Amino acid sequence: MISRFQTVLFCILLAASIAMGAVLWHLRDRAHQRLVAGEDSAPTSAPQVAPAEQATLLVANDADSSMLDQVQSLPLPQDPGARARAILGRLLDLYAAPKATHPVPGGAASVAQVFLMPAQAENQPGQPQSGAPSPSATGPEMAVVNLTSAFAASHPSGIETETLTLLSICGTLHANLPRVTQVRFLVDGRSRPTLAGHADLTRTYLAAEADNTEGQHP
To answer: How many Å apart are CA 11 and CA 19, to the nearest integer?
Structure first.
């Protein structure tokens, strides 16, 4: 004989079970909806990869202190600053490779950023110096190459090897971005006296300096 208390307890437990089942079903339905929404918002196509293009690298050679053109194919973004960084990254990858003609450790990661801005106005004889940028938006440009401190710290010391590195960077920039006529160098976003104790980083380098030394001693 089932007592009234047991009947009431059974009904309470049954109601609790039904309510818990309903809650679990609701939570399951919400989880399913979130999963479907996540699938719908996921990209349906792979991210676009920059198309491969030909780039001209001015590669230094320590054997005779020369710099020679080398054409390579690599993916290049459309943004000029990112494009310049990618090209210089390939140049420094060559220098970091085994049996490099100009061994310098670091590779592409050694170039933190490349900024492009109007070139500084050249001073005429008898006129005071001026650091004001050219007002023309389509005229000559200056590239500001921001190198990492790790690259500067590991770069071989010596006026010739340091100068070869800087001039090859200048020449490579000008070969691929002809409007770049001047180059300044920073290290971790700050001015630095020299690259590795010799080559001056406080001055503005002219792309013509690299052009004049191509295939010759710098």
So the answer is: 12
